[in-house]
Amino acid sequence: MTSTFPNISISTERLVLRPLDLDDVPALAEMMNDEQVVAWTDVPRPFTEDTARHWITEHAPAERAAGRGLDLAVTEFLTQRLVGVVQLSKADWHIRSGELSYIIAPWARGEGYASEAALVTAQWLLREQRFERIEIRTAADNTAAQQVAQKIGCISEGVLRNACIVHVRTEDGTWSDQRTDYIVWSLLPEDLEGADEQLADTGGFTAYSDWN
Predict the structure, then answer these.
(1) What is the per-residue pLDDT across 37-82, written as a single tens digit (0 to 9) for each?
(2) Start-to-end C-alpha separation, the chain
(3) Which of 70, 76, 90, 126 has its CA 20 to 30 A from that of 5?
């Protein structure tokens, strides 16, 4: 029987990670249309509010219910503004592994939100859900994503050559696909000891099950 993820909210001193809801539609669409997001991910172009609504009401609930993945909105604790999204995909309940990714809105970058959100999500997965491996894949030139992986204690395992497609803006304003390498990172339960010190600086986190 396939396991599933609970509806949860995870909080740190600065952030609340919770299920996406319809109030997030405008901010989510705006964030996903940012040039850096388009360049490094395979989000639909353009990412409309209808696309955001479909993700929130259909895709994310179906992935969670089937045990395939989990999508969490990352919001500021004080303002409740949507600052990003953390996503677990390719969940394998036999191996107890999954692939973690993160996107932060342009206005919220440089505040350490990506590493804070990725770390508390990974800790919840490795400790509460008893996962044995969290994997992160970063495009070879995506140094910002690589810095997040390093900051939360991930170990670089190697390179998947020609395994990634990124998107480059052309002179006429359109986007062109460009092939590059993936750098593979992993985080195991025993890697969390050092990461705990990093999280202590943000006040720790609390997970609340069956969030509504």
Answers:
(1) 999 999 988 999 999 999 999 999 999 999 999 999 999 999 999 9
(2) 25
(3) 76
The span from the CA of 29 to the CA of 181, in Å, is: 28
DSSP one-letter code for 7 = P
DSSP designation for 48: -
Nearest to 195 by CA among 129, 108, 118: 118
Whole-number CA gyration radius for the chain: 17
Q: Tally Cβ neighbours within 10 Å of residue 76.
A: 15
Residue 92 CA to residue 32 CA, distance in Å, equals 27
State how far the Cα of 98 lies from the Cα of 109, in Å rounded to an integer.
25
DSSP-derived letter for residue 199 is: H
Host H or E run for residue 135: strand 133-139
